[in-house]
Amino acid sequence: AITEVAGAIALGLVSGVPAAVITGRSSGEGPIESEALAVVFLTAGAALWLDLSYLIAGMPAGAVIVNTARHHKRAFHEIEHIEWPFLILFFVLAGASLDWTALIAAGWIGVGYVVLRALGRIVGGWAGAVVAGAPVRERNWYGPALMPQAGVAVGMALVASEVFPDWAATIMALTIATTVIFELAGPPATLWSVRKVEGR
Fold first, then answer.
1. Hey, which bits of 57-181 come out as E strands?
2. DSSP state of 105
3. Which regions in the chain score pLDDT beneath 70?
4. Residue pair 9/57 in contact by the 8 Å Cβ criterion
């Protein structure tokens, strides 16, 4: 597992550096759709070929591009115009794998996950704000602002289901059910936190 994660991060860094330099040169407004798709497919294909996590590999690649490319302000803005069909397909397929019996059987595990994740966000957000030297009046609101849970969690659950097929039904049931909970409660918590920080 350590080798897979470390390898995926290394791959993301390796693919992100040339992408940061090359993308956005043909357009004055930033990377175009074909460039964005090329980076995604090349990174994912290399990860599959090397038997690494394609989900993890994509995150450092994007982080490198955003933080090192100085010739465009926003990476892959154009991809927002084509992302919604893929998101819908992604969540439909994820929802189709939901086993209600597994969710009922999980019971208190799901409750524990919701409680512990919320506590982790609150404590972690506060601790991160302290380490980063954020203003004192803002520190208590970073955690609630991090409550939403969506694509990355479901994607990681799909990967975990492939690695642990015996637990696949339980993993997907818990992740999808808690994603619904946090996507309903998370955005209002984020909005509330932002308004508190702004003094409204």
1. none
2. H
3. 24-32, 71-81, 83, 87, 90-91, 93-106, 151, 200
4. yes
- CA nearest to 96, candidates 24, 154, 40: 154
Task: Tell if the pTM clears 0.90, that is, is over it.
Answer: no
Rounded Cα distance between 37 and 90, Å, is 17
Alpha helices by DSSP H, 50-99: 54-68, 83-96
Do the beta carbons of residue 165 and residue 157 sit within 8 Å? Answer: no
Residue with tokens 């975990």: 160
Question: Within 10 A of 138 (CB to CB), how many other CB atoms are there?
Answer: 14
Which distant-in-sequence residues (6+ apart) come within 8 Å of 172 by Cβ?
Answer: 94, 97, 98, 99, 102, 157, 158, 161
Phi-psi region of 53 (alpha: psi -120 to 50; beta: other; left: phi over 0): beta
CA distances from 116 to 78, 87, 109, 121, 141 (A): 37, 27, 10, 9, 17
> Could you tell me which of 110, 117, 118 has the C-alpha nearest to residue 175?
110
